Sequence to fold (873 residues):
Amino acid sequence: MKNISWKLFLVIAVVIAAIVYIIPTLKPEIWPHKKINLGLDLQGGMHLVLEVDTEKAVESTAERISQEIREQLRQQHLRNVSVTRIEGSRISAQVKTDENVDKFKELLDDDFRDLRKISEKTADGTYSIVLGMTDADRDHIKKLAVDQALETIRNRIDQFGVAEPDIRRQGDNRILIQLPGIKDTQRAKDLIGKTALLEFKLVDDTASVDAALKGDVPPGREILYRVEENPETKRVTKTPFLLKKRTLLDGSYLTDARVQIDSQFNEPYVTIDFDKKGARIFERITADNVNSRLAIVLDNNVYSAPVIQEKIAGGKARITGRFTTEEARDLAIVLRAGALPAPVNVLEERTVGPSLGSDSIRKGLLSMLIGGLLVVGFMIIYYKMAGLIADLALALNIVLIGAGLASFQATLTLPGIAGIILTIGMAVDANVIIFERIREELTLGRTPRAALDAGYDRATLTILDANVTTLIAAVVLFQFGTGPVKGFAVTLSLGVIASLFTSLILSRLIFDYLLMYRQTKTLSI
Amino acid sequence: MQFIKPDININFIGKRTLAFIFSIVMVLISIGSLVLHGGPNLGIDFQGGTLIQVKFPAPVTIKDIKTGLNSVGLGQSSVQQFGELHDNEYLIRTDGSVMTTEGFSIDVQKALDAETGSQAEIRRVEMVGPQVGQDLREKALFAMFYALLFITIYISGRFEFKWLLSGVVAVALIGAVYLFTLFHVSIPFLIVAALIVTIILFWFLELKYAMGAIVALIHDVTITVGLFSIFDKEFTLAIIAALLTIIGYSLNDTIIVFDRIRENLRKYHKNPLEVVLNRSINETLSRTILTSATTLIVVVALFVLGGGIIHDFAFALIVGIAVGTYSSIFVASPILLAWQGKQIKKNR
Fold:
């Protein structure tokens, strides 16, 4: 019959397609193609949601602008003007001498046109002005900061070496990172979260550190510490340094950073290379400050502060500090990948160890097997031959879910396995509806053929209805779900669709075949 | 083989008062427990916090773990046995998100090793910040809300073949919800309000089947949530997934009974409604029991063998499937009789 032949063709096509898709997962050596992705909860790994502190990016831009203004003032020999950053991202300026006011305003109009005037006043011969950035500028800086952070983190993770990391933007200022299979989560987290802002600052040896520690910090100076841990005693020592606040050179001029081993002490250190401009600046700084100390500061920690012996040309520097090889390697990675434009905070972290993941897989599969066997056994006992057909449909159903997962490159999670298990229970549901209906029709005295047709015809709509509601729930779940829950929604949806196919088309086909070609006179149901 | 004979005729509808009392009591207990516990027991997914799962090679005492935690400033944590007894696994929970950066898990591990004299293995760390917790809470509630909305539209359209009316219901519902959001009401309240609006609409538009289905739905979800509250189990993202599945599944059962009622009403339109209802429930009883049984078999397998992480999820499904089966027989169908009273009054 024509009706049977197209159904047969469809079923064969679907089965072949399913097998083609599922083979790579079972036996990758036969047919290496797309495998089923395992979620982090099954293969172990780390899920992180970071928030980029974009406000800090705006603040540091404001800080840079005020430095630029000061630089311009110096070049134009405008004295008695003080420029400071206040209240986050505002810049306040005071001009004491009258004749300088116009020149200062001119300077602002020429070079800093983008700044918005918030307030200005003249009192006691002092002209004060508060400047801020426009909202558009601020938004732009924020957006750029997140983009840049995303790029930087991606670079760092690439260099750290994680297979198939998933790093993406989430919402306005969040970054979602998924690192499957990662073992040393702590190290990865430190690597990702480090701002890695490298700065070179001069040590002020003219003022007393002790006085500054007591609160008497001279203007334009700051106290930063060198924190060291003795590897044997675990004692942490903090050494204070009085530094000139101005950053002479920062990590943005860096072209490379590599780990080297000191042959004398057998201690690792990191060498850094500057680009041409950076090399020029470095040469000028070292030439101007021979015999002063130059502090190498990373994220406000002083790493070392060697005395400049002579002018250093060539744009090379080294960072020492009691590193372990791992620490030195990670430092080189973050320096190479560049600094984060703003600090990041961990908003959400989910880490699953590999042993727990494999435990979950084992337990999930075991409950699937036991649950499945119970259902299969039950169906055969209760419906005999028809039960066997339903079981066959069920087996294909599971293959179809697997194939669906592989072909859509969806992720299988622990709730996802639960979804498959649930589908096992629900897939026979459709068959039960049909079989019960057929039994009813048979008790009404119909022939097997008529009972079969009536059973399928009447049950089809009911089955569609019943499954649509589950599908609605699954689709909503998929929309809102994250990670593991999404996996559940996927397998549940796939299971519903697969069970519609297997119960309405496959099992029908088998019944038709039995009745038509094998001339079966009774239905074993 | 047959458990339930084709000629079975149990008077389900006749027991509707008893069932009604039972359901009301269950719902009241559920709500009572929720009120007593000050709302559902939210897990770290929705509340923020830190959860650590540790495994020891040998038995340790919870007291030792706590002392160890105290030394790293986690003295306020709750420690709980997790999974099977011989697994020696424990769950450590803290309120508020401890910063998990800067060698956190290493510190915890060292502290636990030192205090218990055993090699602790940190198998899972979950830290959810308060902001993310709040986001997830809203997302979960919205998911519940949208699931209800779509299902409401579907059942009012599908059961009554009145897609126009279902459109009216949808528009009215969305309008009402929009109105409420203007007043910045909280989402749980929004959902309750939306449900009340739905029920009122169904009542006045005489969407009987839709009414039966939605009441059964509310009944099932409330009791499942209530049982979770009584057993003091935590609400996590996975539990929300389970609740949505229960919504889908409970409807599934209800739809099958309703389909048969519709069919039988055409066939035996001379019979009183009660008789038709009873007949329909009895005719589909075999199927209802069987499919619930097969689904329960697998979910119980999952509950027993699936391990600690999936345990509560499986528990929610077991409760939901059991209650859902009960409600499609004893709650959804008797609701159809509610209009009968109305009809009689009108005719008088």
Notes: Chain B has two domains: 13-43+136-160+206-347, 49-128. The mean pLDDT of chain B is 84. The longest helix of chain B spans residues 273-305.
